[in-house]
Write a structure and sequence with these properties.
single chain, 948 residues, alpha+beta, seven-stranded antiparallel beta sheet, six-stranded antiparallel beta sheet, 34 strands, elongated
Length: 948
């Protein structure tokens, strides 16, 4: 600051500063212009601060430079230019950017001083203070205080004083700048309101476009204004109105200017999103939207483009162009947007009338095209009518209707019609990928493809569409929101944009076609259900006709071949549990399919048989997949399709055959074919099993009746022989009294045998009869040991009976004795030579006694498992119960169940075989007895120690 006299007090200096600051702040607030404010500020600073030079420059944000607005110096500074450019890195730009004061000790030698370094050398200046004029992070300019003294600076209080003055100057400059912007801002209301009134009175689109161009040119004042219209059929923009320029730049008629959408794809997408595209001084990131080629076509350096839309469709755009770089004002942008939207609303009534008439025709098409469907001819004719109307209305070239076929994993071509030269269309279209499938399922509207070359939609169908010469495609799901099972496609041979009106018409037709497809599917399902019903009815009738197995198999295979429309059907059979199979029957209507009926097919190694057995259901195959061993007995041409299945009945039943259907190479099996084939082969399997069981049981009964008749008559012969022997003994006894006693004993024994034989011959000739008898347990055990003793001696077995009670048994004792003998005999026969057998007896309660036989023999686990079952899982399959000892033990188990007892067989932990029998006691009537569980007590060495 100015130097105070030595006698001035500190209080006087402070008071002077406050008064000077107050005056300058009041003066700045009262300044009438920005120049006046700058002059007041620089005069005050030069007066209050001891710096020879004071300079103020305002910041030009557009051009990034300082403009000199005021300067104080000892002499006139002609060397200071009006414009001082800012260069990156110099001290002036640093203060402008950082907005903090900067003190320079030697301005002449500062390498970053820029133009001020030259000024400092001319004026012999060294030290300098560079102070920003800022308001709320906005820099309005710089204050430079310079002195020829080196290192001259300002105190903290002086810098604070400068900050207050410069802040007030910045506030004043901000107010003048805001007022200037307000005065310069263009008013939108009046031009737009006037434009609304004029547009409504004009008769056609061209008149409206010319008025729009004229008003835009007047308000924005660009180099030129013009309108480009969109042609969806060719997918390009064309200049609809002649340009209206500030001055004539060309006499050439530019109505021929065309802009292809493919060349301005980014611009087209931006306009479609209702964006205003603005290019000012620098395009920067807008290069992806506005290309250099477009700028060259328009002969523009700056431009604004606003979309013109109607009902969601892009109709064209308004182009406001400048031949030089220009920063467009916000009011100009808003006016262009408003004018384009007004035009979108005010399109002429003639267009609306034409649109209404066309909409009425479209509704007539979509609502009246279907009157009903009663057969293929009806809906084929209806679809042809749809194509004719769409071709006339939209100018399309091709029309396809596709229906998804899950059996073939693709789309069947249900209908196709093409204009001009028809091209070959594949009958099966591949399935769509997941992205396209979900897109068609979720989209409520049709999927548009403007240019197939540039699109990534429907990639699975792209080769087919390109081969058909399609460029623009419209695809619709006949049931939006559901899986795209029914599809309608229309194609054009040139690139085009599908308008909203065209899409709406197409979607309405697609929905009506969906009704046709739905009715056609219902009819097809009814036909399939009818075939299935007829198959069931035929199968039930075949069961009641009493056919023999050969007739049943031949008739069934013939019926299957007719329903499947196949070439041949054959049956490969083997006996349950067998190792080799043969082709037992075959029906064919194709001479290229043959089999070797005498060829033995190994069940365990043949591929076709094993694939069928390993598949729970049907298995489609190609004959090319078969190995050479299978082709040795199944001979046919390459590419043939096979459908095989195992003849299964219940899960526990053994499979004894497979069925094989053969068709042409191009044939695809449908789901109802699978259903019919599975149904008829299942019926065949059960019918074959029924006939096999009937034959087996009939034969077994015949064999048993024959055996019973033969043994019964042999027993009668023995009875007669014993009777004759008894008579002879009686005669001998009367003749020889010396041995009369011995003969009498022998006669009594023979009489007892004859009595037992007579009970069997008379009472049990064709069926068993239960007899209730009582016998002490000890007597039964003695008789059992006596009966089994020959086997024990023959196999040198050690045996012991463990019994501590003498209870009385009740029941058919003769049959129980035979059952116990069979159990003991089986134990003896499976025991090793010199082995051991124990018979344990234990009274469980007042009603039951338990007999347990343990032996050292090994019993087959399969035999134990089958004995534990109430009946065989499969009576036709080979079993351990088909012969002794399993057959005899199974008979004993069945008999003792009828007699009121139980038998169980198991293996103990130490490896011995355990046979356990529960027998009833004679203490209570049988109807009051409670039978204990078979596994309640098991004999062990701990509970029943064996004798040593």
């Amino acid at each position: 600051m100015a130097q105070s006299q030595p006698h001035d007090s500190s209080y006087d200096r402070h008071d002077h500063q406050i008064m000077a600051l107050s005056r300058i702040l009041k003066a700045l607030r009262g300044a009438m212009t920005a120049e006046e404010a700058v002059t007041l500020a620089i005069d005050h600073v030069h007066q209050e601060f001891a710096f020879e030079v004071a300079w103020v420059g305002l910041y030009d944000r557009v051009n990034h430079r300082l403009v000199t607005k005021g300067c104080h110096s000892p002499r006139q500074l002609r060397s200071i230019r009006t414009i001082i450019n800012l260069t990156p890195g110099d001290v002036m730009e640093q203060v402008v950017v950082q907005q903090r004061p900067l003190i320079v000790a030697d301005l002449q030698n500062e390498i970053r001083a820029g133009e001020w370094g030259t000024i400092a050398k001319q004026l012999a200046l060294q030290s300098a203070i560079i102070f920003p004029i800022k308001r709320q992070e906005v820099c309005f300019g710089l204050l430079v205080l310079a002195s020829p003294d080196w290192g001259k600076s300002a105190s903290l209080g002086e810098r604070s004083y400068l900050a207050i003055v410069m802040g007030e100057l910045a506030e004043t400059l901000h107010q003048f700048e805001s007022e200037q912007q307000r005065l310069q801002t263009k008013r939108l209301e009046q031009p737009l309101l006037a434009l609304i009134g004029r547009l409504g009175n004009l008769p056609d689109i061209d008149s409206q476009l010319k008025e729009l161009v004229r008003e835009t040119q007047r308000f924005v004042a660009p180099q030129r204004t013009r309108v480009f219209w969109f042609e969806p059929k060719g997918n390009y923009f064309w200049q609809r109105t002649p340009e209206l320029a500030a001055r004539s730049v060309s006499t050439e008629d530019e109505r021929s200017l065309h802009i292809a959408v493919d060349e301005v794809r980014g611009l087209y997408q931006a306009l479609g999103n209702q964006q205003l595209v603005v290019v000012g001084e620098s395009r920067g990131a807008l290069k992806t939207i506005v290309s250099d080629r477009l700028m060259q076509q328009l002969q523009a350096q700056s431009l604004m483009i606003a979309p013109i839309s109607r009902q969601g469709d892009l109709m064209g755009f308004v182009s406001v162009e400048g031949t030089a770089p220009r920063i467009w004002e916000e009011s100009e942008k808003q006016f262009l947007i408003g004018a384009a939207q007004l035009l979108s609303v005010a399109l002429p009534a003639a267009v609306a009338k034409e649109t209404g008439r066309q909409t009425e025709l479209d509704q007539h098409l979509t609502t009246g095209v279907i009157q009903g469907i009663h057969g293929d001819v009806d809906w084929q004719q209806t679809l042809q009518t749809c194509f004719t109307v769409l071709q006339d209305r939209l100018g399309i070239q091709q029309f396809f209707v596709l229906l998804f076929n899950p059996d073939r994993n693709g789309y069947d071509l249900c209908f196709q019609s093409q204009a001009n030269r028809p091209r070959g269309v594949p009958m099966l279209w591949p399935c769509l990928d997941d992205v396209d499938w979900q897109m068609l399922e979720r989209s409520p509207s049709a999927i548009t493809i403007d240019n197939l070359t540039h699109e990534l939609k429907l990639m699975a169908w792209r080769p087919h569409l390109l081969e058909l010469g399609a460029q623009a495609v419209l695809v619709g799901n006949v049931a939006p929101g559901n899986a795209p099972e029914g599809m309608v496609l229309i194609c054009d041979s040139i690139s085009r944009q599908w308008t909203t009106t065209e899409q709406s018409l197409f979607e309405g037709v697609a929905r009506q076609i969906g009704v046709i497809l739905h009715q056609w599917q219902l009819q097809r399902q009814l036909d399939q259900q009818q075939h299935i019903y007829e198959s069931i009815q035929w199968g039930l009738q075949a069961l009641h006709q009493g056919l023999n197995p050969d007739q049943l198999e031949q008739t069934t295979l013939q019926h299957v071949m007719q329903l499947l429309h196949g070439s041949a059907v054959l049956l490969v059979s083997w006996s349950p549990g067998g190792t080799t199979a043969t082709v037992t029957h075959m029906v064919s209507q194709d001479t290229t399919v043959s089999v070797d009926t005498h060829h033995s097919i190994p069940v365990g190694s043949d591929a076709l048989i094993n694939w069928a057995l390993q598949t729970d259901g049907l298995l489609p195959l190609c004959v090319d997949e078969l190995p050479a061993d299978t082709k040795a007995w199944l001979r046919t041409t390459a590419g043939r399709r096979l459908l095989i299945t195992a003849l299964r009945t219940a899960p526990t039943h053994a499979v004894a055959g497979i069925a094989v259907a053969v068709s042409q190479p191009h044939r695809q099996w449908a789901s109802h074919h699978f259903t019919i084939f599975k149904l008829l082969t299942s019926q065949l399997a059960w019918s074959r099993r029924h006939l096999a069981m009937t034959a087996m049981l009939t034969q077994q009964r015949q064999d048993l009746e024959n055996l019973n008749w033969y043994k019964h008559h042999r027993l009668e012969d023995l009875y007669r022989m014993l009777g004759k022997l008894a008579q002879d003994l009686a005669h001998l006894q009367a003749k020889d009294t010396a041995i009369a006693g011995e003969l009498q004993l022998l006669h009594g024994q023979i009489a007892g045998v004859m009595e037992n034989a007579e009970a069997v011959l008379v009472g049990e000739r064709w069926q068993l009869h239960r007899q209730h008898q009582t016998m002490p347990l000890i007597s039964l055990l003695n008789r059992l040991v006596e009966r089994v003793n020959p086997i024990l001696e023959a196999r040198q077995l050690w045996s012991k009976v463990h019994n501590e009670s003498n209870v009385v048994l009740g029941g058919d004792m003769l049959k129980l004795e035979l059952i116990l003998y069979e159990i003991m005999a089986a134990a003896c026969n499976r025991s090793p030579i010199g082995g051991r057998i124990d018979l344990w007896c234990r009274v469980l309660n007042l009603d039951w006694v338990e007999l347990s036989v343990t032996d050292d023999g090994q019993c087959s686990p399969r035999l134990l498992e089958e004995l534990s079952q109430s009946q065989p899982l499969d009576v036709l399959a080979p079993s351990a119960l088909d012969g002794p000892p399993g057959l005899h033990l199974a008979i004993c188990k069945l008999l003792i169940d009828q007699l009121g007892g139980e038998i169980s067989f198991s293996t103990l932990d130490d490896g011995r075989t355990h046979s356990r029998v529960l027998l009833p006691l004679a203490a209570y009537p049988e109807q009051y007895k409670v039978k204990p569980l078979m596994d309640s007590v098991l004999p062990t060495e701990a509970s029943h120690p064996s004798p040593t």
